[in-house]
Design brief:
Order of helices and strands: EHHEEHH
Shape: elongated
Mean pLDDT: 92
Helix content: 55-70%
Number of helices: 4
Strand order of the largest sheet: 1-2-3
Strand content: 15-25%
């Protein structure tokens, strides 16, 4: 992650923001050597919607895994169950 001082940010705001926007870089802003801010790219509305949909799918899978685990027989591995089913 790259860093830029406040003075440099003031002088090169357009170039720094272009790096964040186009190259999806995260840039730390420093003041007297201490990090005081973080510039990060914002997801577009389309990408936010896709991310939310992806999160919903993973939540459903987590719920399904919890339900399967609750009813899974003790001392039976998934490999054993598949082998048994194939016989």
């Amino acid at each position: 992650m790259d860093t830029v001082g406040v003075r440099e940010l003031k002088q090169k705001t357009t170039q720094v923001l272009r790096r964040v926007r186009e190259k999806k870089e995260q840039i730390q802003v420093t003041y007297r050597g201490e990090v005081v801010a973080l510039l990060v790219p914002v997801l577009s509305a389309k990408r936010r919607a896709k991310a939310a949909a992806d999160e919903a799918v993973w939540a459903d899978l987590d719920q399904l895994a919890a339900e399967i685990s609750a009813h899974w027989p003790k001392n039976v591995t998934a490999v054993d169950a598949i082998r048994q089913d194939r016989r």
